[in-house]
Amino acid sequence: MSPQILDNALAAVGHTPLIRLEKIAKQNGLKCNLLAKVEYMSVGGSVKDRIAKAMVEAAEKDGVLIPGKSVVIEPTSGNTGIGLAMACAIKGYPVIITLPNKMSLEKEASLRALGAEVVRTPTEAAWDSPESHIGVAQRLQREIPYGVILDQYRNVNNPLAHELTTGPEIIEAVVSTPSTSARPSSGKVDVIVAGAGTGGTITGLSRAMKKAHNNDCIVVAVDPKGSILAYPDELNKAEEGKPYIVEGIGYDFVPDVLSRDVSDIDHWVKTSDDEAFDAVKTIMRQEGLLVGGSSGSALSGALKWLRSEAGQKFAETEGMNVVMLFADGIRNYMSKPWFLNIAMQAEPSPLAGVIAQILKKGTQPTLADIENESFDAL
């Protein structure tokens, strides 16, 4: 982040830290460096800030967006909408976001706080149905004068934003961190893991790594069970169409900006909701990072791949740099049952027993009482 005064919030998009997850690596017996690109530290709260800024600026440059006339309309699972609403608040464009009902109330609240109009659509509607978030956005675009859909599913600036910003930031952080005897490093990005939604993130990251940095970098895409993005298609058959809770990744169609070419994405991993949310709890409790559900998918997918035959040599080699993209933070999910279960329904800790003893009416715990509460577990 620049130490200088920034002209507006768009200048604070990106520039997020790459953080070592040493405790999780040790817990899983990994010798490689397990690293996370933590995107909730971007000004709008997610990796999608990057594509929102890129798409708006490119549309202005190309004359697609006309100040004082254009209305931005976008179908989204939420984070792209928040990024667009932020950018358009700064630039003065009205915004309409179409959002499936499954997406969190927090996302809608953030969108409305930034001045966007929000239209909810049925989660179960197929992507090409007139009732889907995509279909409703297209109808609004046809009916509203100067309506513009920037279309993250087809817009080349989606993957390009990650090829030109996210990827180079990761490369710079890895290359600039010296290898030491205590923390050896190969000096390059050896593996990169990210969830696939529109596919722009994983596609852009792959191009940044393979074209300009390390042609041998292994790119692993994570897709939730129930989605159809993974390749080959046989990976999706067992649970195709099954509803899943995790937001922001997975689709029932393959967006144009996702490259499923084996030269771009080396491996696909399918993950479940339970795996994702268990991993979120681990990230929070072990590493202190308040991430969203798709970050849990990225971690669980990375660990699953590192245990596979293809991933074992990376897991067992000191200095190998395995980078995961953590797409957003917990801000958008704090009313969701899966998060409330983590936060409010956890098993009492040994320290809770000590507190209960201290506060128990009319009693004063003895030193023996406190010592018996097994502080080794804290």
Automatic annotation (TrEMBL):
<dbReference type="Pfam" id="PF00291">
    <property type="entry name" value="PALP"/>
</dbReference>
<dbReference type="GO" id="GO:0009069">
    <property type="term" value="P:serine family amino acid metabolic process"/>
</dbReference>
<dbReference type="InterPro" id="IPR050214">
    <property type="entry name" value="Cys_Synth/Cystath_Beta-Synth"/>
</dbReference>
<comment type="similarity">
    <text>Belongs to the cysteine synthase/cystathionine beta-synthase family.</text>
</comment>
<dbReference type="GO" id="GO:0044272">
    <property type="term" value="P:sulfur compound biosynthetic process"/>
</dbReference>
<protein>
    <recommendedName>
        <fullName>cystathionine beta-synthase</fullName>
        <ecNumber>4.2.1.22</ecNumber>
    </recommendedName>
</protein>
<feature type="domain" description="Tryptophan synthase beta chain-like PALP">
    <location>
        <begin position="12"/>
        <end position="307"/>
    </location>
</feature>
<keyword id="KW-0663">Pyridoxal phosphate</keyword>
<dbReference type="InterPro" id="IPR001926">
    <property type="entry name" value="TrpB-like_PALP"/>
</dbReference>
<dbReference type="InterPro" id="IPR036052">
    <property type="entry name" value="TrpB-like_PALP_sf"/>
</dbReference>
<comment type="pathway">
    <text>Amino-acid biosynthesis; L-cysteine biosynthesis; L-cysteine from L-homocysteine and L-serine: step 1/2.</text>
</comment>
<dbReference type="GO" id="GO:0004122">
    <property type="term" value="F:cystathionine beta-synthase activity"/>
</dbReference>
<dbReference type="GO" id="GO:0006534">
    <property type="term" value="P:cysteine metabolic process"/>
</dbReference>
